[in-house]
Amino acid sequence: MGARAEDAGRRRAAGRAVGRRQERDRLTVPQGLAALSLDALASVAYGPEAIVVVLAVAGSQGLGFTLPVTLAIVVLLAALTFSYRQVIAAFPNGGGAYAVAGRHLGRRLSLVAAASLIIDYVLNVAVSVSAGVAALTSAFPALYGDRVPLCVIVLGLITAVNLYGVAESAKVMIAPTVVFVAAIAAVVVAGLVRRTPVVPPVHPTASAVSAVGVLLLMRAFASGCSALTGVEAIANAVPTFRTPRARRAQRTEVALGALLGAMLIGLSLLIGKFHVAPSGTKTVLAQLTEASLGHNAGFYVVQFATMTLLALAANTSFGGMPVLASLLARDNHLPHVFGLRADRQVYRYGVVVLAAAALVLLVVAEGDTQKLVPVFAIGVFIGFTLSQAGMVRHWHLDRGSGWRWRAAVNGLGALLTFAALVIELVSKFGEGGWLVFAAVAVLVAVFESVHRTYRRIGAALHLGEVPARPEPCHTVVVVPVGAVNLLTSEAISAALSLGDEVRAVTVVHPEDRDARSADEVHAAWNAWRPGVPLTVLHSRTRSLTRPFVDHLRALAAQERQDRIVVLIPEMHLPRPWQRLLQNQRGAVLDRAVRRHTDAVICRLRFRIHLGH
Question: For 229-263, b where at least 16 C-beta lie within 10 A, e where not — what string?
């Protein structure tokens, strides 16, 4: 009694230790910012510039609207931050737009949201990696011709880190994130304090090719909204946080919104103060850095921090997309393998598929960021709009305290994101925007096909029904053998414990040497006397599988047994290179039996310990 209690205590202690180790593999708030927010934080390197590029066609008058457009984007950011904070509380198992749309807008729209988010995750990896490599090749022009191999190397490193574990990757990302945020803060503070720029930036021309109008401002707003990609990743990955998961995820979302909003407003103030215009050789951020800090060591620190964070921003997708894929797998819309965690709390299959898809895009686009950017933000705004609309319905159904103003905030967010989506699509349709909608349609079709297949499998297995009472059946175990040895002995012993009747089968060829080998096998078998009959099959075509499959079919045609089990014995050598020496007959038989018969297959792997 005391021993059993002691064993139970040890098991409970071991379980608690495993639980603590698994909890340590999850994210804190700083790690969540580093693992899931790099995409949004790094967007300050190209978001303000996207606004400036659009407004520059109206000259200095158009650039004067940089701050108002940025403030509109920050208002939308605040609405999204608040909305996703509520999403996290309402959906603590993650899913973001997918979970919200699934509950309040229907299954079909939830699949549209999931497909758009997956596309955005893949594009984010490709754009972030290519942008980081572009910053490197700008500093070292000799590497420009090698940008595709460099993209592959960077992508491979990020993938390897994430396969090791999201918490470990988050720890790696904390230092670059802190350096980048501190560098941008230094640029903003120094620029606001300084009266005149250290290095004069490129100034806008007095002439304008377009007037400032609503359409131009909407285009600038839509282009600048590329800075909001990644805001939803935290809500999608709530299960990766430490307990209390929802509360930590909410704090991370608020911290992201505050940091991103402050940096966007600060940089826009500097753009207006220093009258910065687009340049063909320097980014807007580089011009602001030179104007605030000068062309010195501080300038290179900011540029290197920006390059590093752009490359690492892909980590946002590696943190969010595998979790979203696991939720789709749980709902039978993706293969269940995407829901399997590795030993370090990683959805490994989701990580690998995401990396492979991004690799294809990088190779096809030849590592050119400008070929990927036109379709970058379209997918995420589909998810934004559906998530906001779903939360409006959520408040109407919940009708808790303050539900009217909460629904109003989400409704405003839905209108703003939908307007941005329309502008993005209209302005970028000919540049590849239509491909996003085509890809969404294809993914939704795949989700539906997988779901139908799982539904048929469930019907075939009578899931949800009480099965008939189990009854014993007569089982014949067939063991393919090649010689009398220890492997054969182990296989026959296992077969005798599995079935009512055991038969050994060997295949020989009608040649003198093989015939003598068959005689030797008969002699050895009779000398061994295992109590199991040996059947010799002759193959005229030197095929191993055809006579064996024909024998199984003939055996199945008899009415004396209910089930046939094929037990295939195999050696398992200790080293991978030693396994190359095996003849692989077990795998060949396995494929043939599965393809042509209904027999149950068991592969018995016997470990061989080789001496020195």
Answer: bbbbbbbbbbbbbbeebbebbbbbbbbbbebbbbb
Alpha-carbon distance 176 to 330, whole Å? Answer: 35
Alpha-carbon span 152 to 314, nearest angstrom: 13
| Cross-strand partners of 607 | 572
**Residue 213: how many other CB atoms lie within 10 Å:** 11
3 state DSSP class of 367 = coil
Alpha-carbon distance 155 to 358, whole Å?
8
**Is 475-607 CATH 3.40.1380.10?**
no
Residue 408 CA: distances (Å) to CA of 97, 250, 390, 396: 18, 21, 12, 10
Q: Provide the whole-model pTM.
A: 0.72
35 vs 115: which has the higher pLDDT: 115
Distance CA 142, CA 120 (A): 31
Q: Do 276 and 201 contact (CB within 8 A), yes or no? A: yes
Angle (CA) 117 119 125, round 5°: 100
* pLDDT tens profile 327-360: 888 899 998 888 776 544 457 788 889 999 999 9
Is residue 417 classed as helix, strand or coil in its secondary structure?
Answer: helix
What are residue 606's DSSP bridge partners?
571
Which residues, 6 or more positions from 505, have their beta carbon under 8 angstroms from its beta carbon? 478, 479, 480, 481, 534, 535, 537, 548, 551
| C-alpha dihedral (29, 248, 126, 283), degrees to nearest 10 | -50
Residue 125 near residue 157 (C-beta atoms within 8 A) = no
HSE (CB half, 13 Å, CA atoms) of 552?
27
pLDDT (mean) for 446-464: 90
Report how far residue 362's alpha carbon sits from residue 308's, in angstroms, rounded to the nearest whole number.
18
Strand partners, 568: 603
Q: Is 507 helix (H, G, I), strand (E, B) or coil?
A: strand
Task: Give whole-number Cα distances, 372 to 115, 279, 312, 466, 537, in Å.
Answer: 18, 20, 17, 53, 61
Residue 135: name the closest of 351, 248, 282 by CA: 282
Do the Cβ atoms of 130 and 365 come closer than 8 Å? yes
Alpha helices in 429-560 (DSSP H): 433-460, 486-498, 512-528, 545-557
| Dist. CA 567–CA 576, nearest whole Å | 24
Per residue in 178-229, pLDDT (tens digit) is 999 999 999 999 999 988 888 777 665 555 555 667 778 887 887 788 888 8
What's at 223, amino acid-wise?
S
Q: Which residues contact 472 (CB under 8 A, 6 or more apart)?
A: none
**Domain at 18-455: CATH code:** 1.20.1740.10
Annotate 421-449 with b (16+ C-beta within 10 A) or e (fewer). Answer: bebbbebbbeeebeebbebbeebbeebee
Terminus-to-terminus CA distance in the chain, angstroms? 47
533 vs 515: CA distance, rounded Å: 19
Distances (CA, A) of 438 to 114, 375, 518: 14, 12, 62
Each domain of the chain, given as residue ranges in start order, spans 18-455, 475-607
Q: What is the pLDDT of residue 543?
A: 79
pLDDT for res 446: 95
For residue 110, the Cα-to-chain-centroid distance in whole angstroms is 18
